[in-house]
Design brief:
Strand content: 5-15%
Number of helices: 27
Distance between the termini: 88 Å
Length: about 700
């Protein structure tokens, strides 16, 4: 067998030499990147201390450092002045580019380091690995030419590679979930939208408890966002004990659906498992666009639910594009998706509907074409109408006597792209020109058009989809905003613009497809392997630049290395749990709470108590209740002014405001003993304190 392989290498000397040189180059880059990426610092061996750290780039959240040492016990660690206790394999994410690391070991020895790691070293590492891996395969291709490519070539049957991808998706989903959940119960770390939806679910199930709540007392204030998540949370909450955990247990299913869904979409589109795998991987990282994102999220909020189902619907649309009898099912699916995320559904319903026009049988007469399109549109409207009626009727829009004030508040509460699509579109283009996605997408489209002529029908279909998404997400908001400004009307819908995040799917698709098209045109083995390696390198670079999703996975891996399914959380986490469990069980139901802290929504979905004020409420009230929005605006300015005060002036103002808002309790960060004594002097009562939080009964 070895002799046959050597003989096959000799039979193609140019191929062998080229692949071998590139393999050695990739291996050298990988070694150089690794030695720079994993910086080992060994100092004062006579004390038996060996400290090292690993650095990886996190463009948004900063750099992450993992520490380890060969001495037992905890050590004090100061990272750029922020001192904390460290345990083996702990991670810290840092904001600054070149932090200072100071380690005070168990025996009192102080070690100081300056971390000057640059992101390019990690790119070199991963590019080198990708190049070496790709060319290592290339070197054995003469021996496995038919067998290896047969693994990736698509067929209707499921092979071992598909099973492996499925198992990998399940493992990733489990690690991703555990790294976000971390065994915290009740879970109190939901993001803003997730916290809101969990609060809506709590208020739907317990309306009598939230009678005194600024937002939740009136169901009309939140019924516009009654997605499928609300009944699911109310069904899961009795099983897991709290709404936060109920939200998180849905995360693994979302992750599995999205990853395998994009893999299936890639198989249907590319007819090649390799490109399907890359399409699934490149859609995992979360890419931020204004205050939204495309990619896998840590909370299974409606937009994440929508995009976990989307690739399955698109795969069906591609497979059924020439089967008109199945088209009604596509519009049924599109209509049902509104119950997952109403903001995303119009763009994709339009995209799917328009795409079908171009695949109608040529034998159909014009009246048949129009009739079928009308019926398909009606199917979507019938399926989506129950939710659409509630959603649109709940919005407060049109003419308003206090137009200038409401517009001022909307500009205060919402980001500019939601209210001015021109700004949002300009930012979107500039961002994706600077990161290279738009230029690479254009090159990909040219490559597809020139080298993949057999699938131009799919290029047309995907192009219509992209135009449909752009039409609903950019053109319609632009027209509505223009009319609203001219006639001084409040807009009906400010969220459609968020649909522009789906254009990232088309960027990824066309870039990978463009590289894969080269293999369609040039069938030489080396060219085919080269395209595989190039596609891998492009995906690796993008994943590294947006690698925030790796943090929870690394956290879980660290737990498993220490033989723990989930890691024990800190005393700070325990303090949160104790405080909110006491609020839920130790404070009479329906007692109203006011807090100056950024933990306000936790009081609702974990503590199950009404809030007299929450800054987050401006988002919901901005859509449905402008009269309440004006009062919210006043309270927001009052609360922000109070937060600027200090000492007894702060406490006096806070208690006075709590009395005005008719709050029964003040929930705040831990008050020192002297502040607690002052609260008692002015008639208040410290109802609970655990050195992290203090609950004060308002006098």
């Amino acid at each position: 067998m070895l002799k046959r392989w050597i003989a096959s290498l000799k039979s193609e000397p140019k191929y062998t030499i080229t692949a071998g040189v590139l393999f050695l180059l990739g291996l050298a880059l990988a070694i150089f990147g690794y030695t720079t990426y994993e910086t080992r610092v060994i100092s004062r061996q006579e004390h038996g201390v060996s400290v090292y750290f690993k650095v990886s780039p996190y463009p948004i959240s900063g750099r992450c450092i993992e520490l380890d040492w060969e001495v037992e016990g905890a050590a004090k660690v100061a990272l750029s002045g922020s001192e904390t206790k460290a345990k083996k394999h702990d991670f810290w994410c840092l904001e600054n580019e070149i932090p200072t690391l100071t380690v005070t070991t168990a025996d009192g020895m102080v070690l100081n380091y300056r971390i000057g790691m640059y992101k390019v070293t990690v790119l070199i590492l991963l590019l080198g690995i990708g190049l070496a891996f790709g060319l290592a395969i290339a070197l054995v291709i003469p021996w496995l030419r038919k067998g290896l490519f047969a693994v990736f070539d698509s067929a209707r049957t499921i092979n071992g590679f598909d099973v492996l991808i499925g198992l990998a998706a399940v493992l990733f989903a489990l690690m991703f979930f555990l790294g976000h959940w971390r065994g915290i119960r009740p879970f109190f770390l939901l993001g803003g939208d997730a916290a809101n939806i969990a609060s809506f679910a709590a208020a739907t199930k317990n309306p009598d408890i939230f009678v005194g709540d600024e937002l939740l007392a009136d169901p009309e204030n939140f019924r516009f966002y009654y997605t499928i998540h609300v009944p699911l949370l109310n069904a899961l909450e009795p099983l897991v004990g709290d709404y936060g955990t109920a939200f998180m247990v849905m995360l693994p299913l979302h992750s599995i659906l999205q990853i395998i869904g994009f893999y299936v979409l890639g198989r249907v589109l590319f007819k090649d498992r390799w490109w399907a795998l890359l399409l699934a991987v490149v859609n995992i990282p979360a890419v931020r666009l204004w205050n939204t994102f495309w990619g896998l999220g840590g909370n299974p909020i409606p937009r994440v639910s929508f995009q976990s189902v989307l690739p399955w619907v698109l795969a069906a649309a591609i497979a059924w594009r020439d089967k008109p009898k199945r088209w009604p099912w596509l519009m049924v699916f599109a209509g049902l998706m509104i119950y997952l995320h109403p903001v995303s559904t119009p763009a994709w319903a339009m995209a799917l509907w328009l795409g079908l026009w171009f695949f109608q049988p040529k034998t159909w007469k014009w009246w048949q074409r129009l009739g079928v399109m009308f019926l398909l549109g009606m199917i979507f409207l019938i399926v989506s109408f129950p939710f659409m009626r509630i959603y649109l009727s709940s919005h407060d829009h049109g003419a308003a006597p206090n137009y200038d004030l409401i517009w001022e508040i909307l500009n205060f509460r919402f980001i500019t792209p939601l209210l001015d699509i021109r700004v949002g579109f300009r930012d979107f283009v500039n961002t994706n020109m600077s990161n290279g996605l738009l230029p690479l997408t254009i090159l990909g489209l040219i490559s597809i058009y020139l080298f993949d002529k057999q699938r131009r029908d799919l290029l047309l279909l995907s192009g219509i989809w992209a135009l449909g998404v752009l039409f609903v997400s950019a053109f319609i908001p632009y027209v509505e905003q223009t009319i609203a400004r001219i006639f001084e009307l409040l807009p009906l819908e400010t969220e459609l613009v968020r649909g522009m995040r789906y254009l990232y799917l088309f960027f990824y698709l066309y870039i990978l497809w463009g590289v894969a098209a080269l293999a369609q045109r040039y069938r030489a083995t080396l060219v085919k392997v080269g395209t595989y390696a190039l596609g891998l390198a492009l995906v690796v670079v993008w994943v590294v630049l947006h690698s925030q999703f790796t943090e929870p996975v690394l956290w879980t891996w660290g737990c498993w290395e220490n033989n723990q399914f989930t890691c024990e959380h800190s005393s700070i986490t325990q303090a949160y749990e104790d405080a909110f469990v006491f609020l839920k069980e130790g404070v009479e139901p329906g007692a109203t709470i006011m807090t100056p802290e950024d933990i306000e929504l936790i009081i609702r979905y974990v503590g199950l108590h009404p809030l007299v004020y929450a800054e987050k409420d401006g988002g919901s009230l901005g859509y449905v209740n402008h009269a309440a929005l004006v009062e919210w605006y006043r309270r927001t300015h009052v609360m922000r002014a109070i937060r600027e005060l200090e000492g007894t002036a702060y406490l006096d103002a806070l208690i006075a405001q709590a009395q005005e808002f008719e709050a029964d309790y003040l929930f705040m960060r831990h008050l020192p003993e002297e502040s607690q004594a002052y609260v008692r002097e002015i008639g208040g009562d410290v109802f609970f304190d655990n050195r992290s939080f203090t609950l004060v009964e308002v006098p």
